[in-house]
């Protein structure tokens, strides 16, 4: 049976390191795995951010991903976490995909809604002067509350040390799509007819279940939807990552049965 390549997209303030366990798992099973680094996300977290990051847009991220996904020899299954889930939808619409896995997906222009927990999570960023045209990084207190809630302390400490700078402009485009004249997070859902899986923790505080449910309703193909009880935004620690991998496996079985 033919195996599609896997194309993993990390989220905001993150790096491809989040996919290390998944990469090893699927490469051992014979899958080709690509986990690209978004522009400027390969810098040392202790270094000052690149000034160009301040003006980097969602389109810049999408263009970089499109250039890399086009290097694959066939349409991949695209897996994205958080902001990577939003970008995964854009890449699938622009390039096509054999399947789509959206983990704790950030909102698109069409699935955005007002919720208090994301506002609280982002408060330390969005109360900084000119944050929308500056590099941003979430502080430890709010990351613990809104991203790493319900994650064991050892894994939380490790992940906190790996958070990198990101684009204030991109955060603005995601969090305030109504004010973004470029409509940077818009997705053509009529093109998303491939099999899809949406997974979210029911205690996610930065991309809450309402966003995931709205996303699942927008997708035009057959969708498996899963809410994980007692789980927050972070899905990369045991045993949660194994549960997520089981959902990816089920999607792969559906896709491979169609090839």
UniProtKB/TrEMBL annotation:
Keywords annotated in UniProt: Hydrolase
Listed InterPro entries: AB_hydrolase_1, AB_hydrolase_fold, AB_hydrolase_sf
Signal peptide boundaries: none
Ranges of residues in domain AB hydrolase-1: 6-244
MF-aspect GO terms: hydrolase activity
Keyword Hydrolase part of the UniProt annotation: yes
Domain of life of the source: Bacteria
Entry protein name: Alpha/beta hydrolase
The species this protein was found in: Pacificimonas flava
